[in-house]
Specification:
By secondary structure, the protein is of the alpha/beta class. It is built from 11 helices and 15 strands. The protein folds into 2 domains: about 210 residues, Rossmann fold (3-Layer(aba) Sandwich); about 110 residues, Rossmann fold, CATH 3.40.50. The strands form 4 sheets. The protein has a 5-stranded parallel beta sheet. Helix 2 packs across helix 9 and helix 10 crosses helix 11.
Length: about 425
């Protein structure tokens, strides 16, 4: 009887464990096998014809993904490829997700991809797209470029989703009522990182800032976070060396970091021009955090909780590469639009804008809690991942940081601190 009991238990456990969804990251071989199976299923679907809508299409929404061609920058490492398709697969997968519900309720979604070339005028091309009747824009642009879009008066009649810029200015003094931000702002990232450093009692910093505009923006946010959480910045240094660090880092970095007593080296180097070369070369053995080392981010290839592994594998099968932050932001923007249209049964701009900014909106985005938009500046509130190059270390907000509305609002500019005036 006892043997029979254990046999039954083993049988039930076997059924459970062998039928759970794949939770481990897949190997290249497994991904190729899955991709091959996906292609076979696609061929079978094409033979049967396109998936039909259960109801007559009542809402047909066109989304525009707008990006700009960039000059290829010099690289210090050949390990990371320069991508020219960031955002594309995020939009593609999100359209598929939107249609999963859309086919049942009669909502169709299509996406257009427009890349403004180096010799083309961004504002001119954007105005053409608005005049063609487009209302929803996902823009992969920097701070200045996003600002320029709103110099066109007709921009007030569309909704724009920022999927790249982390600028605090776009969320404060230069905010717009119809501009929604998917990436965490610099202040959100710096607060998320600082919460963890305070938890570890690493409260004495040496801050090293790069020469670029974005480096200085991030450094400002880090200094604001230090003041907010009672952290002492022992010294701040500007990295202005022009030598090739692949050959000189062993000599330059020890001298550069000598003479300061600090717990952690905090780096603001958005382009990655020097930050990677600080590790293992500082005068004193100290951890490195910021844009290199332990990094606060919205998405990371090591993230696997809350269903993220399935998303990672799905993206890799489709694209053949890792999902980047911009890919994730693009996916989230399109899913947010789909969720709002589904709930309102309409793609009316004013209804969608009101719903996205309201308390009823919430979107599952592989972060453990639903993400939503702050009504006072259009910023998406979300947990922030703290990741090392090959491991997930923590997720902020850290335990113990409380807020009357949402713990997620302990990161970034809260409503009383915001200077955004719609």
């Amino acid at each position: 009887m006892r043997a029979k009991f254990f046999l039954i238990i083993f049988f039930v456990q076997s059924l459970f464990f062998f039928n759970i969804p794949e939770s481990r990251e897949l190997s290249i071989k497994q991904l190729e096998e899955r991709k091959k199976a996906d292609l076979e299923r696609l061929k079978e679907r094409e033979k049967r014809g396109k998936k039909k809508f259960s109801k007559e299409i009542t809402v047909s929404t066109n989304l525009v993904f707008l990006s700009k061609e960039r000059k290829t920058p010099p690289v210090l490492s050949n390990l990371d490829p320069i991508l020219d398709d960031e955002g594309f697969y995020g939009v593609k997968l999100a359209i598929e997700d939107n249609l999963t519900t859309g086919r049942f309720v009669g909502h169709d979604y299509k996406a257009e991809f427009h890349r403004v070339l180096l010799d083309e005028d961004l504002m001119e091309e954007y105005e053409k797209l608005i005049n063609a009747g487009n209302k929803f824009f996902i823009v992969d642009l920097n701070e200045k470029e996003i600002e320029s879009l709103f110099e066109i008066s007709s921009s007030e009649d569309v909704i724009v989703f920022n999927v790249r810029s982390k600028s605090d200015l776009l969320r404060n003094e230069k905010c717009k009522k119809n501009l929604f931000h998917i990436p965490p702002s610099y202040s959100m990232l710096s607060d998320a990182l600082t919460q963890y450093l305070v938890k570890k009692k690493w409260k004495k910093w040496l801050l090293v800032t790069g020469p670029d505009y974005n480096d200085k923006s991030y450094a400002k946010a880090l200094k604001d976070s230090a003041k907010k959480f009672n952290v002492k910045i022992k010294n701040e240094k500007i990295w202005d060396f022009s030598a090739d660090l692949r050959r000189t880092a062993g000599k330059e970095v020890p001298i550069f970091t000598k003479g300061e007593k600090y717990d952690v080296l905090v780096v603001a180097d958005e382009k990655g021009e020097f930050g990677e070369y600080l590790s293992y070369r500082t005068w004193d053995p100290r951890p490195i955090v910021g844009t290199q080392g332990l990094k606060p981010t919205s998405w990371h290839r090591t993230h696997e909780q809350w269903g993220a592994t399935q998303m990672q594998n799905r993206f890799r099968r489709e694209s053949g590469r890792w999902m980047t932050e911009v890919d994730y932001h693009a996916w989230t923007a399109v899913r947010a639009i789909g969720e709002a249209i589904t709930r309102n049964n309409s793609d009316d701009i004013n209804k969608i804008k009101k719903y996205l900014s309201g308390e009823k909106f919430g979107l599952g985005a592989y972060k453990g809690v639903k993400v939503s938009f702050r009504s006072w500046n259009g910023q998406m509130r979300q947990p922030i991942l703290l990741a090392a190059p090959r491991s997930m270390v923590s997720v902020s907000p850290q335990e113990g940081y409380i807020h009357p509305h949402s713990e997620l609002d302990t990161m970034g500019k809260d409503q009383p601190e915001s200077t955004c005036k719609f």
